[in-house]
Amino acid sequence: MKDKKPFSFSRRQFIDTAVKVSAVGGLAYIQMSGCGNEENEITPPPENKHVFLCKPYLHTLQHRQMCVRWITNKSSYSWVEYGDTEQLNQKAMHIEDGLVTTHERIHEIYLQNLEPGKTYYYRAASKEITEYNSLKTPFGETIYSSTYSFTTPDPAAREISWLVLNDLHDRPESFSELMELNSKDPYDFVFLNGDMFNYQSGEKQILEHLLIPCTDLFATQKPLLFVRGNHETRGNFAQRLKDYFAYPEGLFFHFHWGPVFAIVLDTGEDKGDDHPTYAGRANFNAYRREQTVWLEQLMQTDAYKNATYRVVMMHIPPFYCNQPSGEGEMHCNELFAPLFNQYKVDLVISGHTHKYGVHPPVSGKHNYPVIIGGGPKDNERTLMKIKANEKTLTVQMINDVNKPAGSYTIYA
Question: Is the whole-model pTM more than 0.85?
Answer without folding.
Answer: yes
